[in-house]
Design goal:
Length: 92
């Protein structure tokens, strides 16, 4: 259903026939960590997330799983090589 509260005309999964079913009845504005994300949109009343009605909850326990501007850094650990086995392998 299309939103009739803040994001007027935008498709919203929380909208029902009796109004917004999200807690408080409205979506909340983005938090500072959301700046730069592709999922944010500017409306007349401020900046809002198109994927989540309350972005502060997504950032509560670390990075938001929907954030398009956050990249996960994986530490590539180099496996320790036994010099004795390496010398045997090089002889083959």
């Amino acid at each position: 259903m299309n939103c009739t509260t803040i994001k007027q005309g935008i498709e919203c999964p929380f909208m029902t026939g009796s109004g917004c079913s999200y807690k408080g009845g409205i979506c909340h504005q983005i938090v500072e960590q959301c700046s730069g994300c592709k999922r944010t949109t500017q409306l007349t009343s401020g900046w809002y997330c198109t994927a989540c009605p309350d972005p502060s909850v997504k950032w509560k326990n670390g990075n938001c799983n929907l954030a398009s501007h956050v990249t996960l850094e994986t530490a590539a650990t180099k496996a320790k090589l036994n010099p004795l086995k390496a010398s045997k392998r090089s002889k083959k």
